[in-house]
Design goal:
single chain; alpha/beta; Spore Coat Polysaccharide Biosynthesis Protein SpsA, Chain A; seven-stranded mixed beta sheet; two-stranded parallel sheet; 7 helices
């Protein structure tokens, strides 16, 4: 497919149990959507049959592509997928589909216009969290307060795993994005603000998955360390200078 309207990028580490259902749900959605799309699954460092499952599905669904790397890290997987994608819009999608794939239309024209980066939010008006334990919500809000203080003020939810980028914006951001870990999306938003891209939050319905791979306390400590690394990278000039805004962009909030 030379010019798909949408690219869906799924980072996948040891996802042999969840991917069959996820790929099936995406396929059913795309069958009725009637817009050209591609799905890129980036398998990184799995020790199970993740790659075999994707290859088997792709044999009957040619819009599905598999990218493999032996290195681990969600940030690395998303970066590889974003830079390999061909779609005019490029969507990060967690392998558990905690936000249903049908919600992708909220991130696209005609429902959403005039944006550079659209981030799924579980906090803005109209969003719904379903089944999340209170303690996880509280810890998530505390981490978001740290994110706003250290990196990207003004956004209510930077960690939801569903985000949309215009193609040229994705290529600009992910070519300089550096973190391989869980805080890659905060880093991308930090760079997007430097470049004065227009970032909007989109309310989503999000279902808590008790089998989540997030290790709450250990991952939170690692993400805090990565937040400090973002500031260090910016001070060292690794993200380049702030660029002028493209005609379709506006100041980030």
């Amino acid at each position: 497919m030379d010019d798909p309207f949408l690219s869906i990028i799924i980072p996948a580490h040891n996802e042999e149990r969840r991917l069959p259902q996820t790929l099936g749900q995406i396929d059913r959605f795309l069958q009725g959507w009637r817009q050209p799309a591609e799905v890129i699954v980036v398998e990184n460092g799995s020790t199970d049959r993740t790659a075999d499952i994707v290859e088997a599905f792709a044999r009957d669904h040619p819009y599905v592509r598999l990218i493999q790397t032996p290195r681990r890290g969600k940030g690395l997987a998303v970066r590889l997928g974003m830079l390999a994608a061909r779609g005019r819009y490029r969507y990060i999608c967690d392998a558990d589909l905690s936000t249903p794939i049908e919600e992708v239309v909220k991130f696209l024209p005609p429902q959403l216009e005039g944006f550079d980066v659209a981030i799924g939010s579980r906090e803005v008006a109209g969003a719904r969290r379903i089944g999340e334990p209170l303690y996880r919500h509280v810890i998530g809000r505390l981490f978001n307060a740290i994110v706003r203080a250290l990196a990207v003020p003004g956004f209510q939810d930077t960690q939801c795993g569903f985000k949309m980028f215009r193609a040229e914006v994705a290529e600009d951001l992910f070519r300089v994005q550096r973190l391989d870990g869980m805080s890659f999306d905060v880093e991308v938003l930090f760079i997007a603000r430097m470049r004065r891209y227009r970032i909007v939050e989109v309310p989503v319905t999000w279902y808590f998955n008790p089998e989540s791979r997030v290790r709450l306390f250990r991952d939170s400590l690692n993400m805090f360390r990565e937040l400090l690394m973002i500031r260090w990278n910016a001070w060292k000039g690794y993200y380049g200078e702030a660029q002028s805004v493209s005609p379709s962009s506006a100041d980030a909030r």
